[in-house]
Every structure is written in C-alpha cells, then in structure tokens.
Design brief:
alpha/beta; 8-stranded mixed β-sheet; binds zinc ion; Cytidine Deaminase, domain 2
C-alpha cells in the first residue's frame, strides 16, 4: 500500500480514551479499539469506532502495562464480529505531541500484528497516547511477506467534533519554514496554531463567488494544501461576483477550478504551496475519493446532491464540512432582505439535512437530471431556493467571512470555545440567530452512519450528467479555436 495513512476519531471517543488512559497515579495504561477504513484517492484513514475497555484482571499495571491474551482475543473476536479492524492504544503519561514507537512498544505490537490480521482480516493499528497534551501518534502494521509485518507511520491523528484537533507527524509532514509573510497572522494566534493550520489539507467544493473568496483567504493565511472542486466554466454572468475572473477567462472558457488554482497560487504565502484543481463534482466517484483525502471541507455549493454527499463525508468519514448559503428576498424586483448562513457538519453538531440545507427528495431529482430540466424548476414555488438566482457580491463576501470564522473558531478555539453553533444572519434587522443543538432524534448521519467510512451502506456517487456536459462543452469550445489561439493558451497555462 503506497497510500498516505491517517487515523480519525470523534471527540467523544478521544474523551473516553483520555479518561481511561490518563491515570491519577501517573502509570501507563492501555486498551483496545475497533476501527473501520475510509479510503480516499491518496490517503487511507482508520476511523476508530469503539473503545473496548479492559475488564477486571485483563491488564496488569505495574509502572508499565501488560494485558492478558484473553483481553486480546475478546477484543479481536469483537472486531471480527463487527467487521472492524483492531487497534491497540497505550499511554506515555508524560509524552507530548506525536509519539513514536520505541523498541519496547515495537516488540509488543509486533507480537500480535500477525494474529490480528488473521482474526480480523485487517492490519493492526497501533496508537500511542501522549498524557501531557492528549495528543496521539499512530502506525499501521502492514504485511510485507508471509508472517513478516512492518509498521508504517501515519501522517496524522484527527479528533473531530466541536473542535478539530490534529496531531501531526512532523517527520512526514514537517512544520512549514518560518517566513515574514505571515507575521501578522502568527502574532494573532501563535506559531503552534499556525503550524497546525498550515498543514491541514483543506478542500473547497464549489469555486463560485463564495468559494473563490474562501480560496483567497486560505491561501493568504498560509494553508499549504488546497483541493479545489468545480466542474463549471467561467461565464460572463459570473463577472459581477467572481473574484479575479476577467472577460479573458470567459473567452478562454476557463474552468472555475483552474481559475481558483491560479488565484490561490498568486495569493499563497506558504512556501510549499500546492493547489490541486478537480474539474469534478464530489458526487462523481473520482471527486468523492479526492474529497475523502481532505481534513476539512468548505461546502460552497447550492445543490442538494453534493450537499448530501458532503453530509455523508462529515459523519461517516469524519471530515468536518463548513457549509453556508445566501438567500436574497427580491420580491417585486426590490431588495427586501437577505440572509446568510454558516455552520459546520461534524459529529455532535447538527447535520446539513437537519439544518434544512437540502431536501433529500431533491437529491434524487438532481440525480435523475430533473433539476436541470427547466420544466421541473418552473413547477417549484416561486420563492423556492432552487429557483432563486438573485445574488450580490457583497453578500458573498459576508457568507464567505461567516464560513471562514466558523473554520477559525473550530480550529483555534478562542478562549477554549470551538463550537458556537449554526449561524443565520439577517441583513434587514442586523441580527444573528444561533442554533446550538445537534441532529434531530433518529437522524442517521450523527447516528448509525457515524464513523462507518467505506462500510456506510449507501451509494451517494454516480454519473453526473451536468458535470459531464460542462466538461464536454469546454473541450469542444477549445477545439473550435484556431491552432494559434490554442497554442497561446497552452503557453499561458504553462506559465501559471
Ligand atoms: Zn510506549
Ligand atoms: Zn442530522
């Protein structure tokens, strides 16, 4: 396996582990966990699904910690029964940050890596808990040859919920080199927070008016890796709202994802900046896999299908999704009001479906192409969000700012507060509504689907006709140009 490796868990699971592993007497402790895979295009994550605490006599604490074979077999059988993998966590009571495997740990884990693979059909995941700051380190025991197992270090361990906390493996993802470019930013929240933020892999789904502003802000802030998703082409009617888009981009039939990549490369303050454009919908399997590589995703789409896909990524794959939207009330051709929302879908918070951000009935309508049929749209109520097209750049900047503030609050937790609920701002009254409760009772997202990863029993991806047509139209438009013009564009693209 050449894939990058990561481990993710909900903050509830992290809390349960912390409560067990951080002992009042300062001694080492351990326990088993169950995990499920989440497979992206270039990263595989082990999502911890359950903590299997030791029962009386199953482990012996004597400064260091030992466990009985009975405990191992009970946990491994439970993993096999649930179709899960098995993980083993032990504590370094005084450790801080990413914990590497020492010789003693290595021998201990190596001794049951093979048995784990045989019983569960999945590799053993080893985790080390750092008692001083509740950080984690992790590795996966992969089979090299019959009976020979070697541990491959993960690049990060993500804890997802009210707050997003990532312990990063500095050897695989070194902290970015210090420059003067982010001095003011670093003076606001310190180098440690900056280094953590910079190394998040951030996805932006939808590079329209709101998405493009978010891309600009992320690049300026020093984020090193951006994945940019949009299958649409820059059009003349985008020019009043699309940051950095010019009439030249319209004439060149520039893909919005490429405009976003160009924009962000010019704005980036990170030395090792990388923007990857995807002319894909996240509802296409390739787009979904690329999105599953991200640590956090901005949702800047207004369609129900991609929102439903992102909702699944947030809960089943433990990738927080920062979503938002704008509604302008322009009845009778006059501005009567405007609202914008910003909220985060993540375990413990209300999901996009419970927040009313999409109607599941419209997901199937979009999948079968109805939403792109003018007759279907005309049949909807006049004030239906899917019919309304009014938008103003100023409101886009407000919505983008609201989403970015949610991101900063979740990752930096000012004054220890990471979750301030879902926000709805009313222009007319200048007021902000907040919703702080989680999903509705019985909601499957923050319920049975949570942490299921690849095992989630729903298929959300499929053929996306609108995306295919947009790409085909772009290719066709470019092919119609005379050869000289095409060469000029190629030259231009090469220079970016
Ligand atoms: Zn150890
Ligand atoms: Zn929900």
């Amino acid at each position: 396996m050449i894939s990058r490796l990561s481990v993710a868990m909900t903050s509830d699971t992290a809390q349960r582990l912390t409560d067990h592993l951080r002992r009042a007497d300062g001694q080492e402790d351990c326990c088993f966990v169950l995990w499920r895979p989440s497979t992206g295009a270039s990263r595989t994550s082990a999502l911890l699904s359950e903590v299997v605490l030791p029962q009386g006599g199953e482990r012996i604490v004597h400064g260091t910690v030992d466990f009985t074979s009975g405990y191992f077999l009970r946990a491994a059988a439970l993993a096999a029964e649930h179709g899960c993998g098995l993980g083993f966590v032990h504590a370094h009571p005084r450790g801080r940050g990413w914990q590497r495997l020492n010789t003693v740990d290595h021998e201990a884990e190596a001794s049951f890596a093979a048995q784990t693979q045989v019983i569960t059909g999945r590799p053993l995941v080893g985790l080390t808990f750092a008692g001083a700051d509740a950080g984690f380190g992790a590795r996966v025991w992969q089979q090299q040859a019959p009976r020979r197992y070697a541990s491959a270090e993960a690049e990060s361990v993500r804890v997802v919920g009210g707050r997003l906390t990532v312990t990063v493996n500095n050897r695989l993802l070194p902290a970015p080199p210090a420059t003067n470019r982010q001095l003011r930013t670093v003076s606001a929240w310190g180098q440690v927070t900056q280094d953590d933020l910079a190394r998040l892999r951030v996805g932006v789904v939808g590079c329209g008016s709101v998405g493009m502003l978010i891309v600009e802000a992320l690049a300026r802030t020093g984020i090193q890796n951006l994945s940019l998703f949009d299958f649409d082409t820059v059009e003349e009617l985008n020019l009043d709202r699309l940051l950095h888009a010019t009439i030249r981009d319209v004439r060149l039939h520039r893909a919005k994802a490429h405009l976003a990549a160009r924009t962000s490369r010019r704005a980036a303050t990170a030395v090792n900046f990388r923007a990857t454009p995807y002319e894909l919908s996240v509802a296409e399997s390739e787009g979904f896999a690329a999105a599953a590589d991200c640590d956090v995703i901005f949702s800047c789409v207004d369609r129900p299908w991609p929102r439903a896909v992102l909702n699944l990524l947030a809960y089943a794959h433990l990738i927080p999704v920062i979503d938002g939207g704008i509604a302008v009330d322009a009845r009778g051709g006059r501005l009567r009001g405007a609202e914008w929302r910003a909220h985060i879908a993540a375990p413990g918070r209300a999901c996009l479906e419970c927040l009313g951000q999409y109607d599941p009935a419209h997901v199937s309508a979009e999948r079968d192409g109805s939403l792109d049929d003018p007759a279907y749209i005309t049949g909807l109520a006049a004030d239906h969000p899917l019919r309304r097209k009014e938008n103003v750049f100023v409101f886009s900047t407000s919505a983008a700012a609201a989403q970015l503030n949610q991101f900063i609050t979740m990752t930096t937790a000012p004054n220890g507060i990471a979750d301030t609920g879902a926000h709805l701002y009313h222009l007319t009254t200048g007021t902000l509504d907040r919703r702080e409760d989680g999903c509705e009772k019985g909601c499957p997202y923050d319920g049975m689907l949570r942490g299921l990863g690849d095992d989630a029993p729903v298929t959300v991806t499929g053929r996306h006709m609108a995306a295919e047509q947009a790409r085909a139209a772009r290719r066709l438009a470019i092919h119609r140009w005379p050869l000289r013009a095409r060469r000029a564009v190629d030259d231009l693209l090469l220079r970016l």
